Structures are given as C-alpha cells and as structure tokens.
C-alpha cells in the first residue's frame, strides 16, 4: 500500500500536494493529519468525499510499503505515522519546497525552492500529459495561491506562474478559490485585529520597522494567520511577530514579513520554528521561554539580523574621476562625454571639495561661462557613504536626498561612487561581473 501524507496543521499547499499525489500515483491513498488549518477544515467539510483521502487512524500501517511525504521533510511534523520510521524495506519519497534539511531519509527526493510544493507535482502531471477536472484544478490552485500569496510573495518562481496557467487552462474556478482564500472577516477577527493594533510595540532598526505583540485570547480564533497578515499591512510595519499565549504551557509566534531583508523563516528557525522568508511560525514551551522572554529574544534577533544583502562596496563604481576646482567647465563637459558619466567629483581622493553633475550644466546661461572654473558651479555640500552600508539603505538615502551620485569614503579616502545606474542594476539583479 502506498500512502501520501503531509504536515500537521495542514495548509492548502499540503492538502493540494497530497491530492495531486493520489492522482499521480494510481492506487495510492492520501492521509490527511487530524489537525488541519481552519480554512482547510471548512473546505474538507464539503469536499472531502471527492478525493481519495483518509485519516491516519483509518490506515493499517502494517500494509504500508511506500510512504510519500509532501510539503515537509520532518518526522515530527507528520501525524501518527512515526512507527514507520526506521521500518526496513519501506520506500520513502519526498516532494517539498522547504530548505530546512529535515530528518526523513528518502529514497527519492524532489526538493526545490519554488513558491509551493504543489508546483513540483503539477510539473510531473504536465510531463505525463494529464488533464485535470475543474474541481481538482481548483483545489490545486488554492494551494498554489495560498503559499505564494496569489503569486506575489518573493519566493514565487516563474514555474509557479506556469503551474497556475496550467490549472486555469484545466478549468480552475477563481470564484471558488476566492471563497476559501479570503474568508470573510467576522466580529471575532475584527476584535483581535483591534486588540493587536492597540498593544503593538514597534522596534526600529536599520531603517526598518518591526511590530511585536503579545496576545492572550480567551477562545480560539479561526483564521488568525490571515488576521496577522492584514495586521502587518495596516500598521505599515516591514515585519510583525505576534506572540500568541496558548495556555500556561506554550506560546505560538506567528510572523509575517513584507521585505526581503527580514527573513522571518530564518529568524524563527533560531527558536526552533520554520517557514518561509515572508511567513513563519514557531511554538515555544513556556518552560523554555515565557511570552516576555520570547519577545526579548525576538527583539534581540531582529537587532542582530544583518541580512546578507549586498553592501555599497559590492555595487559601487571605481576608479572615480576627479577634476581640479580650477578646471574649465568645457573641459569638464568633455571629460564626462568621453567617459560616458553623468557626474564628476571635484578635488582629490583625500580632499573632496564638491561635485558637478550633468544637471548643473543648466546653470550656465552664457557661452563664456563654459570658460569659467568648475568651482563656480559645483555643489559643495556632498553626502558620502561608507562601503559597508547596505545597498538598499544607500538607495533609500539617495531617493530621500534626491541625488544621483553618492561617493564612498573609507578611512578618509574616496574609493568609489554609487550612481542611480548602479542601484538599478542591483535591484534588478544585474550586478556587473
Ligand atoms: Mn508549502
């Protein structure tokens, strides 16, 4: 018997991947954990019979000879199948898009950093030339959209979009998908959102804002993760961490990020959790850390977070062209034309006196002014940066100051210059060789 299962607290990507697996591998049975997310439970309550899926307790584990695990690679995340661990002659397959390095040792692994696990299974379906009915296409699309934020999360890959196209071609129903993806907010969710907004503590660090919140709820709130996503947008934070006190024994942290530089998955992994750069969670036992300690820990992690992003030294141009303050304007213009640059620095590496950029030429109204020295037209108040400043921060600084050239100073010497072109190249991933 071949069973296909996924992680506990099953989300739509997990469910969709199991269902895709049962179609790809004829004769297999999907095993859905007892605990599933609230919106998945709602979906299953009306759709369960349409699929070849059962609960773990309905499986006779003695008959299992093949185990396929989707959307996780960790034993502790799957439900009640632990007795299979270490069984001789059990064939194990993994299909996953997480990069956690889990402890399930598999005979076959398809693990790639796409936006949703179901994308990897859809690739296989396309290869086999399978056609899907609208119901199957719709549930697979819900999984794909949930994990990629409707193809908008930074982890989304081109193949996710092509998988979505395949599902739409096969009749996926966007109206049905929307009902499950955007459940209506009810009074209970609004109350929680309001409570979170009132108690937010904001931490500013390295030009980004992080909201942190300890939440004690009297009863379980469905769709809390969706509320946290909305909460981040409403308080306009780059990332949020909501510490939900479950009971005396444990708390669960739900984190959301809207920027590349704060990878909440990486941050929460340091507390034993997991997830993606944009969405992650962890459950912490109170005997390890109480809610207040978790908060301190998160603030510490946020302050230590030095995202691996490029720094100014990685993208600056050098060597830098300097002209003397007495150089005539027509000579300066010629130098800029020859070198195809839009600005030059005035002075020397160790004595920066000013900058002149192509826009400053507009100050020259009369022909004879082209014979005057550059010092008469240059801008004297020049902002400089350091080589270890984050590229994204340099970009923000240049936008704020409305400047196109930012000289880079190291130990009293100008060693390079960052231009708008350098910044654009960086943000579009076109770093020079
Ligand atoms: Mn997933």
Topology diagram in text:
Elements: E1 2-6, H1 12-24, E2 29-31, H2 38-47, E3 53-54, E4 66-70, E5 91-96, E6 108-111, H3 117-127, H4 134-148, H5 158-169, H6 174-181, H7 187-198, E7 201-205, E8 208-216, H8 224-234, E9 239-245, E10 250-257, H9 264-269, E11 274-275, E12 279-285, H10 291-304, H11 312-315, E13 322-323, H12 329-339, E14 343-348, E15 351-357, H13 391-401, E16 405-410, E17 413-419, H14 420-427
Parallel strand pairs: 1-2, 1-4, 2-3, 4-5, 5-6, 8-9, 13-14
Antiparallel strand pairs: 7-8, 9-10, 10-12, 11-12, 14-15, 16-17
The protein binds manganese (II) ion.
Manganese (II) ion binds next to loops.
Describe this structure in words.
By secondary structure, this protein is an alpha/beta fold. It has three domains: 2-181, Alpha-Beta Complex (inorganic pyrophosphatase (n-terminal core)); 187-304, Diaminopimelate Epimerase, Chain A, domain 1 (Roll), CATH 3.10.310.30; 312-427, CBS-domain (Roll). 34% of the residues lie in helices and 21% in strands. A six-stranded parallel beta sheet has the order 3-2-1-4-5-6. Strands 7-8-9-10-12-11 form a six-stranded mixed beta sheet. A hairpin with a 3-residue loop joins strand 11 and strand 12 (279-285). Helix 1 crosses helix 4 (134-148). The model has no long low-confidence stretch (mean pLDDT 91). The chain binds manganese (II) ion.
